[in-house]
Amino acid sequence: MEDDAPVIYGLEFQARALTAQTAETDAIRFLVGTQSLKFDNQIHIIDFDDENNIINKSVLVHPAGEIWHISASPADKSVLTTCYNKTSESRVVTCAAVWRMPPEWESGSHESPDDSSNNPQTLELLCHLDNTAHGNMACVLWEPMGDGSRVISLADNHAVLWDLQESSTKATVSSSATLEGKGQLKFTSGKWSPHHNCTQLATANDTAIRGWDLRSMSQIYCIENAHGQLVRDLDFNPNKQYYLASCGDDCKVKFWDVRNVNEPVKSLEEHSHWVWSVRYNHSHDQLLLTGSSDSRVILSNMVSISSEPFGHLVDDDDLSDGEDGHQEENREPLQDSIIATYEEHEDSVYALEWSSADPWLFASLSYDGRLVINRVPRALKYRILL
Fold first, then answer.
1. What's the CA gap between 346 and 29, in Å, rounded?
2. Residue 225 pLDDT class (50, 70, 90 cuts)
3. Closest by Cα among 260, 140, 134 to 192
4. Per residue in 197-231, is it b (16+ CB within 10 Å) or e — as a string?
5. Are 24 and 383 in contact (CB under 8 A)?
6. d(Cα 284, Cα 82) in Å, to the nearest integer?
7. Phi-psi label, residue 135: left if phi above 0, alpha if psi -120 to 50, beta otherwise
8. Residue 386 and residue 377: Cα distance in Å, rounded?
9. pLDDT digits over 33-62, tens only?
10. β-strand pairing of 54-62 with 41-49
11. What's the pLDDT tens digit per position in 362-376?
12. Number of other CB atoms surrounding residue 175 within 10 Å
């Protein structure tokens, strides 16, 4: 019987990088990258056994600096990218590389943590996304639903599209774009749109959100002051091609229809500190997760702007019944609401991700190295499904 109680795992290190293992659709698996100055950094492979409600972990050595961002190939379970710090000529730079997990990592890795930590396996370096010319890497994005041969890196004010060849051991630049204008010209994050045949990219820099056409590497829209302060994260609605969500240091989460850049479709202000991460559920786009420096994770039900307002579209006749408009307000399915606020973290929640194997399950990560696995409350799950 599945349980709604959270499952908590503590890494021994600080951490801020998390991804679901995108190509793994059977096992519930997340990858976490550590931020340690003293030790070799690590990738923790978190397997969640939902029948027994327990976490099994394996550790791989990441033979490089603190990990700022991690992203898993959509096509090959064993391939991932990281953005990490490196000290070069007494200056710290953030680099990016493509890695492969050793084929043996699964064998004998689920003993007690002490056994496996004696000689953990090491990630195999496939290639560097060489960025000497491009500045500090903010993130690497894989082409959604792609074959794992195209990635985009965002570094300082450059967006670079790479082709990965020869089993990802070689990366060549296929095209690039440069951010120009005033303000802080430095990408903070971005998302490759799953729509429009994967020809569009959205990026955040300073308080602006920009859309790019990857065929011409030219800007197609710009939401100038999307947030009052820095925009931290973006995500596309998986089912509505023009809709995206953003979050930022103004504590807000905003929803945009990129055909109208003048104002958001909706705005939420439920967090009391910077909002670092926003994620749409891959299957049910009314479900939205946000994580913040207020240490909380919030699950919202944004049904009014979803692709199916709870399977029942409101028609105008419903609204005109009786003079009392409040009747409609209280009819449960149609109202946007906060479903749950999760308070298992005691530090800034920097990352959260939905599982790619179970649409009702998600992980959140706070800076103190605490990873929490939670589920959408069962009552809501059945209401959406039935």
1. 23
2. very high
3. 140
4. eeebbbbbbbbbbbbbebeebeeebebeebbeebb
5. no
6. 28
7. left
8. 14
9. 999 887 689 999 999 999 999 999 999 999
10. antiparallel
11. 999 999 999 999 999
12. 14
